[in-house]
Amino acid sequence: MSRQSEIPGYYFDPERNRYFKIERNQTAPAGASWSATAVKRRKVEDKEATKAKKQLELIKSRIQRAKLLAEPSTGGFLQRELGASVPDLTEAIWAKGLRDKGEIPFVYANGPERPKVPNIPGFYVDGSDHKTGLGAVYGTLGDRDLYSCYIPTDANDRVRFATDEAAPEQLTHTLRRELIPVPYMSSIKYHAPSNSMLLTSREPRAANGLSFFSPPLRRDEEGPVWGLGESQHYIMVSLNSLSGHDNMVVNTCEAASDASSVTCLVGANTGIIRLRTNGSVSYLTPKPDPEEVVHHNPEPKDYPTDIFSIDFQRGGHPEVFFAGGRPGRLWMCDIRTPVQEWDWMRHPSSIAHVRSVSEHRVLALGPRSAMAVYDIRAGWKESAEPCVRFPEYRNREHVYIGAAAEPEIGVVAAAHDDGKVAIYSCMMFQTMPLETHPSLWVGVGPYVKKISFGTSDDGTEDETW
């Protein structure tokens, strides 16, 4: 209610909602609120209350949150000591401490200018060589050739190639060409139980939709464990002849664990193919009709068709996996059961990447800036809603776009269509290719950049990524 207008010589009583003429104390009834003394006392009390309120607001404006508490590490730990709950503390500390840790060029620069080429489409990083501490990376620039390079690092865990001519070759920037031609590689994966490097080709009518080779491993000899550039034999699998389609395109490959009956699963625009541990290759989904035309916008079927991404269930049965592609259906599949028993739920767009982030949760992302986490315990149905959405994810139309995650820290790294890489906090993730420490590896032009938690070259932490 708005404040009533003051009338000289009168008092407004808000309880009775009327005006009373102010009387002298001698004539006013005892305890009357309109007596001169009572009115004067209330004016003094109102003035003091207004003054106290202004003073309280002034004090409140001077109280500010300490800048120290905004720092994830010091502030976060201090808040925990004070009893506050900071659920994303680990993720925030890791993201705040990211530093540029060098890069591995997949071209030889002829001058100071960096060559301008499209982002490197695929690579694999390994850091299991604890004998020499040398990492290993395989990558391609999108043509027919696969290159490899050792990754030497300094005491600050930064990529550091030797420039001394007398230095061992594995410490210098030396690209080694692997003798295996794979046009337009779509994925590079490694199956550790069989020591098989798995390569897929996105080229239609390719004679080697799936290729694999075994890099030499020397764990009991001097020098690096990985024998880069020394592979002499490889196997090519013509998936076109298996499907009967000339326009078959292989989009992805996912290596299985040693407890699975398959070495890997291959996702193509004609369905899902399995490579068994005994070397046989067959369709896991119904084999496509050779007369059927493969469309970019296929009609939904009762089984996966055009597949962009596959990931095995984390913490679950080794024969259970998730798959996604076109149209926007997130599939939960089991190698042991018929495809008619597989479940699915709808995603707002085509699915470029699917990641099992825990036993019960799965991440899906794709065009239309659609990125979400689904809980499979909520049920598989067309109207299923995600348990977590990421409204800040930006990808309007790309299906060939990068994404990875680090389960120990709890972050998801996803490429945006403006060329940036965003890091999202979540509590369950896909494993990144690791070296000796958790690192983020990003393909930027012809370079594989290493982004990791740590300090800059001079030991300070003022150089952020």
From TrEMBL:
SUPFAM superfamilies: WD40 repeat-like (SSF50978). Keywords: Repeat, WD repeat. InterPro entries: CUL4-DDB1_E3_ligase_receptor, WD40_repeat_dom_sf. The keyword Repeat applies. GO terms for cellular component: Cul4-RING E3 ubiquitin ligase complex. It comes from the Eukaryota. This is Plasma membrane ATPase. The lineage of its organism: Eukaryota, Fungi, Dikarya, Ascomycota, Pezizomycotina.
